[in-house]
Amino acid sequence: MPSSDADFWNGRFASESYVFGTRPAAFLVDNAHYIPPRSRVLVPADGEGRNSVFLAEMGHRVVATDIAEHGIAKAQKLADARGVNVEFRHLDLQGWRWPEAEFDAVVAVFIQFAPPDFRDEIFAGMKRAVRPGGIALLHGYTPKQLEYRTGGPQAVDQLYTEQLLRDAFSSWELLRVEAYERELDEGEGHRGRSAIIDMIARRPEE
Question: Which terminus of the chain is less hemmed in, N or C, by CB atoms within 10 Å?
Answer without folding.
Answer: C
